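MODEL INPUT / OUTPUT PAIR
PAIR INDEX: 1
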Amino acid sequence: MPKERGQKVIVSNRKARHDYAILDTYECGLVLVGTEVKSLREGKASLADAFATVDDGEVWLRNVHIPEYTQGTWTNHTPRRTRKLLLHRREIEKLIGKTKEGGLSLVPLSMYFKDGKVKVEIALAKGKKAYDKRQTLAKRDADRDIRKAMGRALKGKFD
């Protein structure tokens, strides 16, 4: 059986980029049981309320919902169990220092298969205030209008 190559996104947390200012991202491995991997291969997962914590020098992913595998038996997994993230010791120590500064959170951005292994992209993020979110939306709308106007100008269609 040939080994998978490349990257296949399972689920992404689009709301995280809206609610948080992303400062730094990390790619982590994930400790899973067999039925979780099978359920993920079907493309079923939710990062809606998920977050990561650092406890006793280890990073844990909490509140990720991976539904039970439909073909599973009594050995099926618990859908919202706490899962361990795999990072290098240097990265964990850096995360411990940054999260203790205060105001920073660890938020999962996406979960994907990379060369047949499940990976999670987590971000060191700072929560945005309501006015920051409005500014981001206004800037995006203004950029879109500018691109439209530039496109029209290049085609010779002026208003």
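PAIR INDEX: 2
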Amino acid sequence: APSGPKPGRGDAGGMEPFLRKRLTFLSFFWDKIWPVAAPDDGLPGLPERTADFSARGAGELSVRRGDRPCALREDGDYLLARRLSGPPSPGPVPLSHLARAAPEPEPEPDWYFSGISRARAQQQLLLSPANAPGAFLVRPSESSHGDYSLSVRAQAKVRHYRISAAADGLYLQKGRLFPSLEELLAYYAANWKLIRNPLLQPCVAQKLPQQDEWERPRSEFALRRKLGEGHFGEVWEGLWLGSTPVAVKVIKSAYMKLADLAKEIQTLKSLRHERLIRLHAVCSAGEPVYIVTELMRKGNLQAFLGGPEGRALGLPVLLSFACQVAEGMSYLEERRIVHRDLAARNVLVGDDLACKVADFGLARLLKEDIYSPSSGCKIPVKWTAPEAANYRIYSPKSDVWSFGVLLYEVFTHGQCPYEGLSNHEALQQVTRGYRLPRPAACPAEVYTLMLECWKGSPARRPAFATLQDRLSAAHGRLRPAHT
């Protein structure tokens, strides 16, 4: 576009509003050419108060500094206005107590990036995977105040072009002047050979990854007392931010497939049930990995049942424990989550005798040479279904087998199953058809359920939903006799 005479306020159609609207980034420049004067006609759009005004009568409107009343009409030295909030009754306010509100700024075009450096435009934006060759952006020039830079991706590099501001327009090449950045970009998009780089699409802004609500720095957790140690690592009682009691599982990196841990943690985050241990936070960046959960003060169910308080519990409470674990496992079954290590040691007990299933899904992260039948004591053979122990075939039905063994633990107050037999001997006996005997404190109908959990064919074992219903029914029949 050829350069012309300096546009004036009296130009037909008004060059000023056109440039101010199209090139808002040069407002400082337009203000020098066309100084902003107070309007001398028209009603104020959205005035705001400059000083307090208290109504002197029932008909006037009181305003306070910071109010933004809506203008209705001007009447001499007064403005008829109403509030945008509160009572809507309109009333007159002296114009001397009002000032015109600044207009809302127009949104920036998607190709304009204010406040970014050349390095960030190049490395974090244009060369990111979200952008292809031909992506471009315009940004304020770092070296020349008032000018702009056009940055364009060309294959694996970025080219930068200076856009200079003159008194009567903008130019990238001398002799080609444009009244706005939009028109300059449109011209070079159509005539890209002049700069040897096509302008195909505006740069896609890289969205910063959203802060994971569970991911926290290790410095927020203080480990106070070691609670135990298992296949997956150590468990500590700790404090979160010096005040909240939590349980912290410190993962043994030597034993775990850490490459799969992130996926497993995502699964943990998606599970919400009152019978599952609640995840509070994770520290998964670097090692050791922390999995932070709610603290269950009475510890694991196996140890609790063997202690003085657990040994004193009667049949209704023991059946309640069985019902609660079945409920949590039914939830996992619905979501096709296989626990792989269901046992009383992986059920935690709270102060109110609430039971919650813990460590679900973590067993699959153990390395093959750690979690296998040949490794001896590492795999929990005595709780593991034959098809899982022999062939590593895990399913909700192998969890059902483990639940039957957990029932045996509950009704023997934490006694180890197959006592006196080694893992290998226990597996041999089970494969030949041997099943654990009925504990003395176990009702016959519950032992029937245990035997159903230990069916040789996984398909013949009941679902956890069925187990939950039948145990709840047994518990319901038992309670009236003990009240």
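PAIR 2 NOTE: Residues 315-334 form the longest helix (20 residues).
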